[in-house]
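DUF2929 domain-containing protein, pasting as requested.
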Amino acid sequence: MRYVVSALWIFILSAMTNYVVSSMASATFNMGATLLMGTIVTLAVWFLPLMLKSHEELSN
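Structure tokens follow.
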């Protein structure tokens, strides 16, 4: 459940960020870029703790 909620919040925040940045740059809002950015950040949030945990186990 926490993965679903974190993915939902990441997509909401990435859409908001993309909207603000595109309006500041006088460009059009692109939903495809929002989905791409949200997917990359979601995967990083899900897999980064796993990679850090395995790195920590190797250093011990």
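Note for the archive: The helical segments are 2-24, 31-59.
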